[in-house]
Specification:
The chain is mostly beta strands. The chain is built from 2 helices and 19 strands. The strands form 3 sheets. It has a 15-stranded antiparallel sheet that branches. Strands 1-2 form a two-stranded antiparallel sheet. Strand 14 and strand 15 form a beta hairpin. The longest helix has 4 residues. The radius of gyration is 27 Å and the shape is globular.
Length: 401
Amino acid sequence: MLFDSATMDRVEVLKGPSSLLSGVVEAGGMMNSISKAPGNRKTATITLRGDNWGMRRADADVTIPLTKRLSSRFVLVRQAGDAWQQFAWNNRTVLYGALSYKLTENTRLTTNVEYIDYLAALPSPRTNGTSALNSLTFRNNGNLNGRWANGVYIPWDFNPFGPNNRRDQQIIRTSNQVEHRFNAMLSVRASANYSRSEKYDRRVNGSMTTRKVNGLDVPNTITLLGTEDDDTFKTFTSQADLVGRFKYFGIEQQSILGAEYIDYDQIRFRFNTAPLSPYLFSTGTAGGWTEMLDDSRWNIPNTRVTSQVRRYAYSLTNVFALFASRVFLMAGARHDRGTIASQSPLSTNVLARTTKSDENALSPTFGLTYRVTHSLSVFASTSRSFSGVPVGSVDMRGDPL
């Protein structure tokens, strides 16, 4: 998914295991972006940016309170211009709107809608190689004046994949959230979110050949092949949390009882071309740059994939503050259940044409923090995470992982 920082209020970095919060995720941590919400004061901000490659960008962020109970916020972004590499550029338009309505003194409804229109010719990575061909990699080609590879000059912004790589993507997502506080101890939040992305991606791929000149390897050609992806992603999520805050016997406790449901669908059509005319270092041109504009060449079916994920989860989190908030104890568990299914009718592997796996994962987490001084604390935790398990994997007894 594509995001734009103009619509984000802040980004939270959650270090360490986060299975308790998000289930099947990496063990090292996660990023949590918070969307901008309306405030109760009228504000307006305009930001203009530019760089010496030709990029120009304008952001407008406006908050307008409509009534004492209803407030709105709007964000508009327009970006256009070239990137640092040959033939690379990035245009985008972002439209964002949010409403916040105070239904009662203790109940608030928030809704937002975001639309991103993205059109770009993406930067192409340097082609990896060995010996003299390391000149083509990012790591070894830091000379802004270019680099000579055994007599062949490579510009520092070298891009053999030409001006016609394209990514055209439209994204729309919306979120609706209701928060209600029953009293000082109990509150509840429920949300529903939907996003849809249409991505059309046409790009050139290549591999390098070399030739011997006076016993040295020099770049000769980069063979070119076109790949086209037409992707549709649809995601629906809903979540509800009951939050309790309690005090007893000198202990402060906060508990969160949560439930969520995820419904994800993806459809991908991929086509290839027959080999295109190669990039020739001797001439610095490639016939493939214009050949990829010929729609009749994109006629070799590569992949047709349909994927579905249906997952629901329940979690209970408890945090206890002890000894005048010098010791914090966390204990909780999350249970994920779901199904992952995919169909790939063009696969040469018959068994891979249809796959399905069932998830049944329990993620317990325990943590302990001791605040030694005001500026020094010690933290330890243990948890289980189920990220990275290949779809369809089974254990030694034949049960799904």
